[in-house]
Amino acid sequence: MILNTMYACRLVVSGRRSYVTGVGLLDDLAHRGLMHDVTHRQALHAALARPQSVYAGVDPTARALHIGHLLPLMTLLHFHLRGHTVIPLIGGATGRIGDPSGRLVERQPADTKQVEGNAASLTASIQRFFGRAVEYAVRRVGDHRRGPDAVVANNLEWHERVNMLDFLQHVAIHARVNTMLNRESVRARLSSQQGLSFTEFTYQLLQAYDFYHLHKHRACSIQVGGSDQWGNILAGLDLIARLDPPASSHSPPAFGITTPLLTTASGDKFGKSAGNAVWLDPGMTSVFDFYQYFVKVDDADVEKYLKLFTLLSWTDITQVMQTHTTSPEKRTAQRRLAAEVTEMVHSPDGLARAQTLTALLFDSDPTHLQAAHIVAALHDDPRLALVSRTELLDLPVFKLAGKYGLVASASAARNLITARGLYLNNRTVPDAQHKIDPASLIDDRVVLLRAGKDKVLVLATQE
Fold first, then answer.
1. What is the DSSP letter of 384?
2. pLDDT tens digits, 122-178
3. Whole-prediction pTM value?
4. CB 354 within 8 Å of CB 342
5. Bridge-partner residues for 386, per DSSP?
């Protein structure tokens, strides 16, 4: 991408080069792949010379964020780091209706208590994300011009105070039905067999009112959403223009930015693995599994993800990719990606635990690890069993494997040894009577048992 000379690049150094701060924000978002469409780009660029308020919404259809949410969250983070105010918005009201965008069938009616519970959980998750992401950014970028701390809003706060007659008289009167029918999300559903309910049809008006309310009461001038939200964003801009006309036709009162709907090189939806989302909540996706998701990213996707989901500078990403290309089997780029995203989402301690467990499970010789780090990395993980030292050294390996659930039974463990499929510290167990030698203990306390490629059991002596 060729940048105008007025956007000459400079780097803030905080321990290491990491983040482009002198480049225009819109150019940086575009280069990183975070910007799909934008309204009135030149006017928005001029407006960004002053602090703005920007929001992105999340409907509480689940109790936790998944990694697909990282796109709008990272976009807000870039705004925040450049001094703008960001407003993460929970759709406590719109979540009860259901957004038809990108869906071929109508959502099941939402349970009010479940929506409220999801909203509370998401609020905490988003606050935690920004807390950790800002700490991560300070370590990478330095604390130089951040905006005010992100405070999560909930649109139920204003929607529950508006009655139907007021809404029809003051909001719906400005909506043109022919325009609403031409929205992509509406046209797609109208052509489907199920059609579109009036409830879902009105969703775009509710979201438009969100933008107007935030514009009026919190001076919010920018909405960020996925590319499937383009029609809803335009509805909000139209409502703002009608209810709060700009002083000049050359200076629109508000703007919209969409992020791409991300898919992998194979065409799968980003954030999905065998139909299951990769969650930011460690209680739903462990920190280790979160880290491993990014370690396993395809070579065709890794550079794109480094731009999207880290604060590494363009130069750093180029250098990482050059190193990766020389020895792709080492997965240098994937490991850097996994480290950056895991540290941002789960803190340095979470990253340390994930890397310790990765080394334990996949290094050919894990004996250099410290037992305390291994036990901490597996805290509350069913793959860890605490045993007495006597039992660990006196029982044959096959009995330990059966007793602590690595395999279904001791006899199954015997059969696995015969097939050379049971491993002790990543080395084949030689025979059925083999016992653990004290010299085999990692840090004199831990051993790793593995059945086949993936099933793992860590045995640690109790302190």
1. E
2. 999 999 999 999 999 998 877 667 888 999 999 999 999 988 888 888 888 888 888
3. 0.85
4. yes
5. 460
